Input
Amino acid sequence: ADEVRALARDLGTTQPAAIRLNYGMQRVRGGGNAVRLVALLPCLTGAWRHRAGGMLLSSSGWFPKNPALGPDGEHRLKAVVVYNSNPVAVAPESPKVVAGFSRPDLFTVVLEHFMTDTADLADFVLPATTQLEHLDVHLSYGHTWVMFNEPAIPPRGEARPNTEFFRQMARRFAVEDAAFADPCFAESDEDLARQAFVAGDVLDAGFDELRSAGWVKLRLPEAPLAEGAFPTPSGKVVVDAPGLGVPDFVPNHESAATTPALARRYPLAMISPPARNFLNSTFVNVKSLRAIEGEPILEMHPSDAAPRGIASGQRVRVFNDRGSYRCKVQVGDRARPGVVNGLGIWWRKLGPDGTNVNEVTSQALTDIGRAPTFYDCLVEVQADTSDVR
Output
């Protein structure tokens, strides 16, 4: 309580004061309301009036974007193309994801650099170019510069950019479906970049200037909300937002308060942040980084480990009704009492049983935005007595 009061005093009296919000706090049922509540703090203190004051989750919203086609969830998928992702490893409740990708009637193509867990279940794996081999433009999470990615080398072997795969597919589909003969399906990467970055609005430079310079800053005021100008009809902060109401605490899907019977069977809350040397499932292919991490780890507080007869360095089984996985435990103060940290996201095939932390995470969604609730997850942990290693 003293820390909370001290933080409140610092936030209310320091100028400028900024909050750097990140993604972990959103990964529970009440994540949307939690973000709304944090976003109101700079409004209460007037922090938006100061250069470098306010709050930042991501700066990507400032960048111009083309509208995207929405998903169609009415039909059973018969074919899927996976690129820039490894859903078999990173999606929640992975036993169901594995079962879905293992369907004999599902045709799966994966565009990849490495044989990931998802690539292992593909009918075809096609080599994708790396960032060094294709033209691209980059936005940002944490700053307001547009960056140009000039290819450093030609594509190696048979590798192709993801965009080229879809251009070639469209040419073949156009034989039977005239919709795929639309000129947009023949646009090159440079054509797409030119359309995305046109001088005007928040960009002074056009494509040619961006390509020549390599990076261009968006034209934005230093304190864009100093005089209000919030994106609301009145230009003012709206607390009681239409359709959302006043933000408030929303309890987890799984907790002692909301699901007491479940909490009696699975009394530990589990969060699953990335292991220190991985970025979700990216870089797990790098042997030197795997060597630093060693193996999948569960962090556990001594007050939870002792009554379960669990010692640091021991193998444990983490489980709930959705599944289970095994890993080594580290007992210490990094985990809070009642909370275990399942460090992810190891590729499943590198885990002791071909599983990872997402065996036990949930597909339930957040209160706002239909986002995943990876950190809204009750589990139990027990010493592993099996001989399988």
